[in-house]
Amino acid sequence: MALIVQKYGGTSVANTERIQAVAERVVAAAKQGNQVVVVVSAMAGETDKLIRFAHEITDQPDEREMDMLLSSGERITSALTAIAIQKLGSKSMSFTGRQVGIITDSSHTKAMIEHIEAGRLRTALKEGKIPVVAGFQGINEFSDVTTLGRGGSDTTAVAIAAALNADLCEIYTDVEGVYTTDPRIVKEARKLDKISYDEMLEMASLGAKVLHGRSVEFAKKYNVPLVVRSSFNYAPGTLVVKEDKDMEKIVVSGVAADKNQARITIMGVPDTPGIAAGIFNDIASSNIVVDMIVQNISSDTKATDISFTVSKADSKKAFEIAKNVSDRLYAKGVNMNSDVAKVSIIGVGMVSHFGVAAKMFETLAKEGVNIMMISTSEIKVSCVIDVKHSDTAVKILHDVFELAK
Ligand code: ADP
Ligand code: ASP
Ligand code: MG
Question: Are the C-beta atoms of residues 257 and 393 closer than 8 Å to each other?
Fold first, then answer.
């Protein structure tokens, strides 16, 4: 008997018909002799709707209250799914994050799971019940509800799979697996049979929303066998696995784009030691993650421009902090550009090949796409560009690196 964690995303549980289809799939897996734990997302569009409600009231709603609000979406789906499973004659019970002991840190709206007290889940399984857990949420040390960031239900599923030492974690979504790039943007995108944890980690953190970045970190750390597949058919999906020798032969295995970025520039900052530390300490203490950083030293003055990117969700807060820093340092001022996208190429084979980055820059230049910022690692190259060029850039890079083949 295998223990399987199945996670169903928003489109897979978009309405009560879909929820009943999911219940059938779950019950079928249980009838084959498996123990099944289900993790569900909010119904499609629900989280966006709740965010819209809050923003109808204020620009910057309190993050603790946002977590209370947003966690309700997955709670609805978990109860409806349990009801649908019960209707099919199987025992089931829904749980919130708190009820299954998902303990997180206190960074509201992007909390990290610290540990899971899975006792309640084990008991339910022993009693022959199919537990249905509301994804995306936990509680902090004060028992306040937290959420794990957009797409966080994937992380709930993988973390539960790790805590229960499950044999398999299946992520059911609205595409047949992980593709060379977003199949909704490039129709030639090719489904991968398998992808390494490291490449998947980069793809996810660089904007391929098919898996939440943290979920891949958990899968890698605890060696959770992970598969991404469609809840709309029985195609085999993509396995996320440890890197093997074959994978290194492929130089570029995917292209990703993240349109959810903003670039902030502090202009005319005095060019003296400790300035960057000061700026980024202020930002970090507000729980904002800074992604790329570029510092230009101008030759004629003793001043420099510092640019960095943050997620759009954090951009207003980051802009305010940057303005305070700028005033404090007598810098020239701050500007923000929210019309940017980060386009990246990813591949474990890049380490051992020359000229990959140059080819990317050349390709973008030929299309007249201006590069605002660049960052590289052993297995990826990222460029910040104008968002209006994002889809075209993804298409041409997919083409140039022959990913459809
Ligand atoms: P769910 O609601 O099931 O969690 P998401 O919308 O979060 O689904 O993620 C699935 C979506 O991710 C797909 O519909 C697809 O448009 C997008 N996506 C982006 N990059 C990729 C990729 N490389 N492979 C597959 N899907 C991708
Ligand atoms: N409902 C949340 C979101 O839309 C979490 C998830 O779907 O994984 O981001
Ligand atoms: Mg998702």
Answer: yes
| Per-residue pLDDT at 3 | 98
pLDDT over 90 (residue 245)? no
Q: Which ligand is nearest to the CA of 175?
A: 1
The model's confidence at residue 150, banded by pLDDT at 50, 70 and 90, is very high
Domain 255-400 has what CATH class?
Answer: alpha beta
- Residue 298 pLDDT: 66
Return the structure tokens found at 16: 């009560």
- Quote the ligand 1 centre to 114 CA distance (angstroms): 26
Distance 288 CA to ligand 2 centre (A): 20
What residue spans define the domains of the chain? 3-174, 255-400
Structure confidence at residue 337 as a pLDDT band (50, 70, 90): very high
**Fold type of domain 3-174:** Carbamate kinase (3.40.1160)
Residue whose CB lies within 8 A of the most ligand 2 atoms, among 136, 156, 312, for a mutation test: 136
Q: Which of 133-147, 157-171, 347-361 has the lowest mean pLDDT?
A: 347-361
CA distance 141 to 391: 42
pLDDT tens column, 277-318: 888 999 999 889 999 999 877 666 788 899 999 999 899 999
Mean pLDDT of 41-66: 97
Best residue for ligand 2 mutational test, from 13, 46, 47 (most atoms within 8 Å of Cβ): 47
Q: H or E element: which one contains 383?
A: strand 380-386
Torsion of CA 55, 57, 63, 68, to 10 degrees: -100
Number of H helices and E strands in the chain, helices first, is: 12, 18
Question: Is the minimum distance from the CB of 10 to ligand 2 under 6 angstroms?
Answer: yes
Do the domains at 3-174 and 255-400 have one common CATH topology? no
pLDDT of residue 299: 64
- Tell me which residues have their CB closer than 6 angstroms to ligand 1: 9-12, 41, 151, 173-175, 178-179, 181-184, 203, 208-210, 254
Element holding 230 (H helix, E strand): strand 226-230
**If you take atom 8 of ligand 2, which residue's CA is the nearest one?**
151
